[in-house]
């Protein structure tokens, strides 16, 4: 624990306490700082310069003591379980927390009180406030002087007019003099009324002076606090830049390290831990490498191949055969045909209108949305890109040729390498794509028919609105079928946005019957409030071949300022049903993936955490996948790839529910964002009206004791998956037949 750094009652109070994190780590020693009614904590005292791990506002917090050494702080959904070294130290902290809480409540009440009797905080504030009042008083005195003069001259005028009335003048002259006298009287009354109104205004200004003072003081404090925050961020940025420039380079040689591919232990259910859920910075050295790869000399192992362990499925020289699938993995490109039975490619568009330069304050919209589901937040198209979520899902097929090559693999573990590379390739388009795709309307579809050109055809349908879920089915003439149902769960956490795709991806090869299943990792969009938006992928993917029981564990390493690893790193191991490792996967999710065949494995040294490292001796790596370069001027076209540029291209004969026909998306692509916003609101209101009608029908059926089916997808149906046991939407057929006949009578009117 350690003694606190300041006595209770002072503005700042610091010291060591133990904080409960999770059932795996228990209580961890943390440095706590109490200042301005906020309790913040850090892992070390040095972290105060750059990384705050969590903060709780005491003005609305509840302080409780469980036993002689424990303190429990709760504020809404956030709870801190703290422990001091002794009862005396606990009491010091409780006293400091109670005093800080009382002070924070007083400050909050003073800011919200409109009729208090406190004087302005400083002499400068008094002068700024009383200056205008003094000027108003001076002007009022001038008006009073003028009023007196008007009254004096008005009285003299009325006397003169009265004297004229007494003179013997023609009758018409007397009437005119009387009218002038009445106007003079009205003028004097109006002048008096103006003076009285000015006096009332001054009285009102004086009565509200303290309210104005508090509002002014509050705005000043907010501005100062913001300036201090920005200054701290700038200092942190500069120190990190200096640390980055001063960091030593990566060691050369043939040895390279990879992070563990084992499953991580999650926090216990119930109370959420700040460090598990909201930490943005990662300590790079906490996770010791689980294995080390060493590149072997192929010539040496040709001579001593008989002494190698049986980890690999064959001899080392097999790796270098010219007809190997690995050897030809990079010889086809996006612009080359992959099959003799396919027709020449249709000429498609290579650009879209440039993105308009419209500015919009993100924080003004997002500040009231913290903790809400992203799909339930009304968003203008300024945050979107002109593609729907169904089209983004179809972009996973950009590197479909990896699956075409996987069909040719005779070995299931070799095939697993290509499937793993394909699963990573789907994230390559996200590195610059921080804009949000359009939420599809219920019943919206998107087809990508490339059967004659690329050998596959794809169909997506939005099968649920709350929660939003999309079903996807792809058939390829090349010998594989892919299907998935993805539900997007997303949370805005103030500093960053977490996007968690839920649902399994299934891939089956026709000839071998190999059935692969995996799930996507979490995507995180950083710098939501301040700075340039950037996206990161983190988590683990386990790919399982349910026929052969082969597995591949892939780990997406989260970005860290302090790590020496390559950014966006992905590592993994392919093993068979017996757990024997055959290949090491390595690369980055935004550039390329390589595969190295394992010749020999051995146990290395034990890490500081007691984990034993495995040393893999491998042959030279082969590049399985490399990202295609972006088109020219991509930065002005939402960073779309060549495939993405074609997804919203108008096509004939598609279903009336196809995303290409969505009017708000089309208007946005054309640069007419104001019209797109109006159209987007119309479509969303139309969808809400349909949902209300459906809910009314369900309630009516319930009252009558009848069954109500609810919404049913058009081209998909829900079934229990035989492999995973999960309820999933699978393609039931009929779409492509309806397209051939151009019979879209079953399609709803959603646009």
The helix fraction, in percent, is: 25-40%
Structural class: alpha+beta
In DSSP terms, counting alpha (H) and pi (I) runs of 4 or more, how many helices?
Answer: 14
Q: Give the low-confidence spans.
A: 114-121, 249-289, 300-323, 330-341
Biggest sheet strand line-up? 4-3-2-1-7-6-5
What is the quaternary state of this protein? single chain
CA gyration radius, whole angstroms: 36 Å
Let me know the average pLDDT: 79
**Estimated share of beta-strand residues:** 25-35%
CATH architecture of the domain at 350-560 and 567-626 and 641-699: Beta Barrel
First-to-last CA distance = 63 Å
Shape: extended
Strands, helices and their partners?
Elements: E1 12-22, E2 26-35, E3 38-42, E4 54-57, E5 62-64, E6 70-75, E7 78-83, H1 87-112, H2 123-166, H3 171-207, H4 209-246, E8 255-258, H5 274-277, E9 291-295, H6 298-303, H7 362-366, E10 384-388, H8 389-394, H9 401-407, H10 412-425, E11 436-438, E12 445-450, E13 456-464, E14 469-476, E15 480-492, E16 496-502, E17 504-509, E18 515-519, E19 522-526, E20 534-545, E21 551-556, E22 569-575, E23 581-588, E24 592-606, E25 612-618, E26 622-626, H11 642-647, H12 663-669, H13 673-703, E27 716-720, E28 727-731, H14 735-741
Parallel strand pairs: 9-25, 10-11
Antiparallel strand pairs: 1-2, 1-7, 2-3, 3-4, 5-6, 6-7, 8-9, 12-13, 13-14, 14-15, 15-16, 15-17, 16-19, 17-18, 18-20, 19-20, 20-21, 21-22, 22-23, 23-24, 24-25, 24-26, 27-28
Main location: membrane
Pfam family, one: PH
Family: Belongs to the OSBP family.
Question: In words, what does this structure look like?
Answer:
The protein is 32% helix and 25% strand. The strands form four sheets. It has a seven-stranded antiparallel beta sheet with strand order 4-3-2-1-7-6-5. The protein has a six-stranded antiparallel β-barrel with strand order 15-16-19-20-18-17. Strand 1 (12-22) and strand 2 (26-35) form a beta hairpin. Mean pLDDT is 79; it is low at 114-121, 249-289, 300-323 and 330-341. It holds the Pfam family Oxysterol_BP. GO terms for molecular function: cholesterol binding.
